[in-house]
Design brief:
CATH architecture: 3-Layer(bba) Sandwich
Number of helices: 7
Structural class: alpha/beta
Low-confidence stretches: none
CATH class: Alpha Beta
CATH topology: Glucose Oxidase, domain 1
Distance between the termini: 66 Å
Largest sheet: 9 strands, mixed
CATH superfamily: Ribonuclease E inhibitor RraA/RraA-like
Strand content: 15-25%
Number of domains: 1
Oligomer: single chain
């Protein structure tokens, strides 16, 4: 038999990316960020923006873990986050009730929060769109969450199959959400330059009429391909 947990377990202090590190990802497509990370880092494909966005959302992750059908930890995250932070609300994929609606998102906007990422569902679509904050989720449900806990704030979570810690960098666009580990930001920024160069070179070839990548012809002409009739 275990003891009842506290309503909230909170870690307020965590290392954050520098403003320069955050700005290095401004307008970086998630595809470029993933390529710079070796092809991985995106959250589950079902976590998508409620509406098409015109720009890339970039900010420091502040993580919270909400219990089933509960959003106390998310409310605490809104009260604790700094301007420019991205709320990352893990629900263990709970879709029974919404984790937030337009009023909480309005409060988040008032605090200067950059947006929300959750593996749960939200409600009040028209109101949330009116608030204007980017919201990434797996769907919609009008069911209401309780605010009883237990939950955690500032501790690592797993969301959309990816481990995310407070202080990691969130990069999100219309394709989805990418979590960039804080300790790897500098390495990934360096890799981004190579990704941009390679993408630009290939794009130029495609516009000039390229029909398939050079490497595939080498493979097709090699001894590693067996022709059958």
């Amino acid at each position: 038999m275990i003891k009842d947990p506290p309503l909230l377990t909170i870690r307020r202090n965590f290392a954050r990316p520098s403003p320069e590190q955050i700005s290095a990802f401004a307008n970086v497509p998630t595809g470029h960020a993933v390529d710079a990370m070796g092809g991985r880092g995106a959250l589950d494909y079902r976590i998508k923006p409620l509406t098409q966005l015109r720009s890339v959302m970039v900010g420091t992750a502040i993580t919270c873990h909400c219990g089933p059908a509960d959003n106390l930890a998310l409310v605490a995250a809104i009260a604790t986050a700094k301007a420019g932070d991205v709320l990352v609300a893990a629900t263990d994929g709970c879709t029974v009730t919404s984790v937030t609606g337009d009023l909480l998102m309005g409060m988040a906007r008032n605090r200067g929060i950059a947006g929300l990422v959750t593996d749960g569902v939200v409600r009040d679509l028209a109101g949330i769109l009116s608030v204007g904050l980017p919201v990434y989720c797996v769907g919609l449900s009008p069911n209401s969450a309780a605010r009883n806990g237990p939950g955690s704030l500032g501790l690592p979570v797993v969301i959309g199959g990816v481990a995310v810690a407070s202080g990691d960098l969130i990069v999100a666009d219309n394709d989805g959400v990418v979590a960039v580990p804080r300790g790897e930001i500098e390495k990934i920024v360096a890799q981004l330059a190579e990704v941009r160069t390679a993408e630009a070179a290939l794009e130029a070839k495609v516009k000039a009429g390229l029909e398939f990548p050079d490497y595939i012809q080498k493979i097709l002409s090699s001894e590693h391909v067996q022709e059958v009739s």
